[in-house]
What does this fold into?
Amino acid sequence: MPRILIAGCGYVGQATADLFHRAGWKVEAWTKSKAGTGKPYPIHAIDITDAQQVHACEGNFDVVIHCASTRGGHVDLYRRVYLNGARNLLETFVTSTILFTSSTSVYAQINGERVTEESAAEPRHQTGQILRETEELFLAHSGIVARLAGIYGPGRSALLSKFLAGNAVVDPENDRFINQVHRDDIAAALFLLLDRQREAKQIYNVVDDQPIRQSECYRWLAKKLNRPLPPVGKSAARGKRGESSKCVSNAKLRCLGWTPRYPTFAEAMEKSILPSFGQL
Ligand SMILES: NC(=O)c1ccc[n+]([C@@H]2O[C@H](COP(=O)([O-])OP(=O)(O)OC[C@H]3O[C@@H](n4cnc5c(N)ncnc54)[C@H](OP(=O)(O)O)[C@@H]3O)[C@@H](O)[C@H]2O)c1
It folds into this structure.
């Protein structure tokens, strides 16, 4: 029975752990603060930033996923969780295949151009630069990097939450392309990459089929939910993706046979996210 460690068993990590468990893998999961209950696999509270704690762990894992998140946060936290966490895992699990869930925010392109894994990934912000440094560390250790687009799924969608709270704004001067991917499609992608593929030193974008302008999302939601379109204004938030606008390609992953169950914003919303928000 192959063994997997999911270091960072949160929104994506848990869906991934469930999938591997259902497929017959022996799963162990880590979180920072709380050992979980109610899952058919062990969840331990291990802080990946703590070298001593991680080095003390044993386990002949075939595969280790670094899937921990800072949930935003400042540069120091990024350095600790992503970079130092990666070092601690790489030093401990030297024989395992290791995968890092990075982010498509490392692409800083601003002109709506198509972006593949071969495109420049030169983030302007320090946080993005730390992600790139972490990616390089994994690749240097024959690891795999999965660059995840904006994550949404049951109970989670930043755009929908804003729309429902009345905080959304249609900003014609900053009408970015949004790249998103459903949580369950991420889990399926990670399974595909690790169950049989395991091709070392590779980067894969994990994103749905259809980058969509932010205003299009709001237009679609307004029509679907029979609510007014958000007002035109200047969007205040400039997050880690705030200045970028690009269409991230999933062609490389699709070539391996990954077929997203939720290939578009509309399908993800209709089949999964709106019902989970009690909106359909
Ligand atoms: N948000 C996005 O749209 C987005 C986009 C692209 C990529 N990503 C990346 O995707 C990955 C998964 O994100 P997610 O949304 O599933 O994250 P999440 O729901 O916030 O879960 C993060 C998990 O990591 C654990 N964790 C945090 N710090 C840790 C530490 N020092 N040691 C051990 N575990 C730690 C948390 O434990 P506790 O619950 O105990 O704190 C939690 O279980 C992350 O790498 C994130 O950076 C996110």
Notes: The pocket of NAP is lined by residues 7-13, 30-34, 47-49, 67-69, 71, 81, 85, 101, 103, 148, 150-151 (CB under 6 Å). The chain has one domain: 3-156+181-209+246-262.
